[in-house]
Write a structure and sequence with these properties.
By secondary structure, this protein is an alpha/beta fold. It contains 14 helices and 13 strands. The strands form 3 sheets. The chain has a 7-stranded mixed beta sheet, with helices on both faces. Strand 7, helix 8 and strand 8 form a beta-alpha-beta unit. The longest helix is centred in the last third of the chain and has 21 residues. The protein starts with a helix and ends in an 11-residue tail after the last helix. The protein binds pyridoxal-5'-phosphate (PLP). The site of pyridoxal-5'-phosphate has 14 residues, from helix 4.
């Protein structure tokens, strides 16, 4: 058997070794990383709320009033009035009977899927679903069936075999590494026809798409149709934490069954107050969402025109597909030297030979910053042979 040291060597040899980058400033459109200020072009802080003055104020007030810790788990001494307020707010935001807060989005998927299902269930999961969904399925005693990415026919074929049993179909609303939107209308009608429950992970959609930022359902005009809405407070909402919104009985059941909810100390007052303030901002300030949408569309089109391999899409997640990990790493390193931070996303986070630079736009990016970034990307893309040279001016 290999020692741990040998296993690390194997990771290094396969090109999968990861280094941590440390940020030593607030996160705006730029941040100080390892001592140098660089443009952030890969953050999930889509609306720039991580460092919003109103949220900082809400957090400070909550600390002054309630202190810094919750002191217990949700079912013992950790449930604060702020938890109830936030769960009610999430319910109204997502237009559901009940909300339920978990400490992270990861824990929300883990607890919800493993808590809801047992050996009598089958869970159907898109092949590119987030790792926390996969882990939720693994932790459950349910049978786990993977269907091809966004492939309605494959889902229907597989679902038909289990008709009449307890089934759950889970999909990302917006896929985290590609930025595409799930064909939710079709998924819902197939699920309905085959008597399956549905769950949507809207980690990258909440706050970002839909007129009021309610996510994929609102964007596609399907509000209220998904059985379980999952989301996170940690991306566009700028803080941390995860949640689901659903029918009362489902939340009531999960409070007993979801271990990541039951056996972990509850979120702190500052985090809860931040999320409460953040939801109101997200719901009411559609102008920053609109700016984000327009900037993303423009930036994506520019990259495509330069000859980068960038799929079409409508979200601020803009993957530049490179394929080879080594080349992607080199691209990312050279960008960092030029003052732009875009890490290379490699397997196992994405499928083999699909390494990519996952560009994301934030509503707080200035036009000049994005224009400069495009120039740097263009020059490096040509130098490293990543662009195919089909750009407007060669
Ligand atoms: C980030 C993410 C999660 C996990 O949310 P956290 O709050 O960061 O734990 C779950 N699902 C998807 C699709 C994500 O991108």
């Amino acid at each position: 058997m290999d020692s741990i040291g040998q296993k690390i060597e194997n990771i290094k040899r396969s090109g999968g070794y990861r280094e941590l980058r440390y940020i030593d400033s607030a996160q705006g459109s730029s941040a100080v990383i390892d001592g140098i200020r660089v443009l952030l072009l890969s953050s999930n802080n889509y609306l720039g709320l991580c460092n919003d003055e109103r949220l900082k104020e809400a957090a400070i007030e909550a600390v002054k009033t309630y202190g810094v810790g919750s002191g217990g788990s949700r079912l013992t001494t950790g449930s604060m009035a702020l938890h109830r307020e936030l769960e009610e707010r999430i319910a109204s935001f997502k237009k559901r009977e009940c909300g339920m807060v978990y400490n992270t989005g990861y824990m929300a998927n883990l607890g919800t899927i493993s808590g809801l299902t047992d050996e009598s269930w089958t869970v159907f999961s898109d092949r590119l679903n987030h790792a926390s969904i996969v882990d939720g399925c693994r932790l459950s005693k349910a049978k786990f069936v993977v269907y091809k990415h966004c492939d309605i026919k494959d889902l229907e074929k597989k679902l038909k075999r289990y008709k009449g049993k307890s089934n759950l179909v889970v999909t990302d609303g917006v896929f985290s590494m590609d930025g595409n939107i799930a064909p939710l209308k079709d998924i819902l009608s197939i699920a309905k026809r085959n008597g399956a429950m549905t769950m949507v992970d809207d980690a990258h959609a909440t706050g970002v798409i839909g007129e009021h930022g309610r996510g994929t359902e609102e964007y596609l005009g399907l509000e209220g149709e998904v059985d379980i809405q999952m989301g996170t407070l940690s991306k566009a909402l700028g803080g941390e934490g995860g949640f689901i919104a659903s029918r009362k009985e489902i939340v009531e059941y999960l409070r007993h069954r979801a271990k990541s909810f039951v056996y972990s100390t509850a979120l702190s007052p500052a985090t809860l107050a931040t999320a409460l303030a953040s939801i109101s901002i997200v719901e009411s300030e559609s102008f920053s969402r609109e700016k984000l949408r327009l900037d993303s569309a423009w930036f994506r089109a520019e990259l495509q025109a330069m000859g980068f391999s960038v799929p079409d899409g409508v979200t601020p997640i803009i993957p530049i597909l490179v394929g080879d990990s080594e080349l992607g790493m080199e691209f990312s390193r050279r960008l960092m030297e030029s003052g732009i931070y875009i890490p290379c996303i490699r397997p196992p986070t994405v499928p083999k030979n699909t390494s990519r630079l996952r560009v994301t736009i934030m509503a707080t990016h200035k036009r000049e910053e994005l224009e400069w970034a495009l120039e740097v990307l263009k020059d490096l893309g040509a130098e490293l042979g990543i662009t195919r040279g089909v750009g407007a001016d060669g």
